[in-house]
Automatic annotation (TrEMBL):
This is Crp/Fnr family transcriptional regulator. Pfam families: cNMP_binding, HTH_Crp_2. Residues 20-131 form the Cyclic nucleotide-binding domain. The keyword Transcription regulation applies. Residues 145-209 form the HTH crp-type domain. It comes from the Bacteria. SUPFAM superfamilies: cAMP-binding domain-like, Winged helix' DNA-binding domain. The lineage of its organism: Bacteria, Pseudomonadati, Pseudomonadota, Alphaproteobacteria, Hyphomicrobiales. Keywords: DNA-binding, Transcription, Transcription regulation. The keyword Glycosyltransferase does not apply.
């Protein structure tokens, strides 16, 4: 049987002692739509995601949600890292956006590896820096980029190979940081231009090149 740590390419540079300590932990399966933590919760473990996707959301006082960042295999959660390192409670909510397979590293094991393994410590801080970059991107998008361009980027990022986006208007509004009504109006405009089509329970991209042009305008 192939050890899970040997299958996780992002751990390729981990030293033998750290790999052995991690390999002693058993991966767990987490069902789609499971809430992993809520605001005010204390961090119980450091999560190493092997498969699936986690969305971390912030809810404002007005009740509006905003996707802060997503976590995919090889990436870490900023809030979990801060919670395990410094005891800070969660300020956001994490939800499994698909079925997950993850390894939950207890704080005692995490602290020991951070102190003894340079490779593991580098992995944690490199992934932490990447997530901070994602947060800065979200801030820039919400503050300076037009809704149409943010929507185009979100549709392309979440589309499958056939161009289907299995998200509601509310889901898209959370991802790009605006109101559902605004997303609905912008999608209607894209439908009228023949760029996308509204189908039952999903959106289908018709003119991917045009949508990509809009997204590039957002990045430029």
């Amino acid at each position: 049987m192939v050890a899970w740590a040997d299958q996780a390419g992002f751990l390729a540079g981990i030293d033998a002692d750290a790999r052995q300590a991690l390999q002693a932990l058993t991966p767990v399966h987490v069902p789609h739509r499971t809430t992993l933590f809520r605001p005010g919760d204390a961090a119980q473990s450091f999560v190493i995601l092997l498969s699936g996707r986690i969305g971390v959301y912030l809810t404002g006082r007005n009740g509006r949600e905003l996707l802060l960042y997503s976590v995919t295999p090889g990436e870490t959660c900023v809030q979990t890292t801060l919670g395990v390192l410094g005891g800070a409670p969660y300020s956001g909510e994490a939800v499994a956006e698909s079925d997950l397979v993850a390894v939950m590293v207890p704080p005692a094991v995490f602290e020991r590896l951070m102190a003894s393994s340079t490779a593991f410590r580098n992995f944690v801080f490199r992934a932490f820096a990447d997530r901070l970059g994602d947060l800065m991107f979200v801030l820039e998008q919400v503050a300076f980029v037009k809704v149409e361009q943010r929507l185009a980027h979100a549709l392309l990022e979440r589309a499958d190979e056939e161009g289907h986006v299995a998200l509601t208007h509310h889901d898209l509004a959370v991802i790009i940081g605006t109101a559902r009504e605004v997303v609905s109006r912008r999608l209607e405009a894209l439908v009228s231009k023949g760029v996308v089509a509204n189908e039952r329970g999903q959106i289908r991209i018709i003119a991917r090149a045009e949508l990509a042009r809009m997204a590039r305008a957002a990045e430029g």
